[in-house]
Specification:
alpha+beta; 6-stranded antiparallel beta sheet; Jelly Rolls; 6 strands; single chain; 4 helices; about 35% helix; globular
């Protein structure tokens, strides 16, 4: 697959951009292809690249333990929580947080079948934003909407988790 095979107009992050803007955005992306069994991103590793899945299928997972924790969870066969399995149908984005803040990766993206990704890095992304502020505003607004939705979803899941924990502790006679 090459960059010319990708229909940028279909990707949510770029929807509504004029053709001239899409040409400038297209120029900062390359294509990365991975085989089944490979990790695109590994939780805890540093990174500054953002990826958009354009063909294939991946699994997103997180460790159930924080680094340095030692808990008696030997009966648990896999200490990773699968958050989602996604394909290219919604053009999912991975790595946008590390693209912006250069922090460590917050999840692992494991390739389940041969897959192709658009990829850009921090230097190319911010160079485009410096040269083309109008495009930068649209891209940042789209990324901000995506991150806001992720935060809202995480908040909802946290409430469910803390409620379930409180109920479980109350049934065991423990006090929170």
């Amino acid at each position: 697959m090459n960059i010319g095979d990708v229909n940028f107009e279909e990707i949510t992050l770029f929807k509504g951009m004029p053709a001239a803007s899409l040409d400038k955005v297209r120029a900062i992306f390359g294509v990365r292809s991975l085989d089944a069994g490979e990790n695109l991103i590994t939780e805890g590793e540093p990174g500054d690249e953002m990826f958009i899945l354009v063909s294939g299928r991946v699994r997103i997972s997180k460790s159930m333990l924080m680094e340095g924790m030692d808990l008696p969870l030997m009966e648990v066969g896999n200490l990773r929580k699968v958050l989602a399995t996604v394909d290219e149908s919604s053009y999912p984005i991975f790595g946008e947080i590390a693209l912006i803040d250069r922090d460590t990766r917050s999840a692992t993206i494991h390739v389940l079948e041969p897959s192709h990704f658009l990829v850009t890095d921090r230097a190319r992304f911010f160079d485009l934003l410096d040269r083309e502020p109008a495009i930068g505003n649209k891209l940042f607004a789209a990324l901000a909407r995506r991150m806001a939705a992720t935060i809202r979803n995480s908040n909802s899941e946290l409430v469910k988790l803390s409620t379930a924990l409180a109920l479980a502790l109350s049934r065991c006679g423990a006090r929170p």
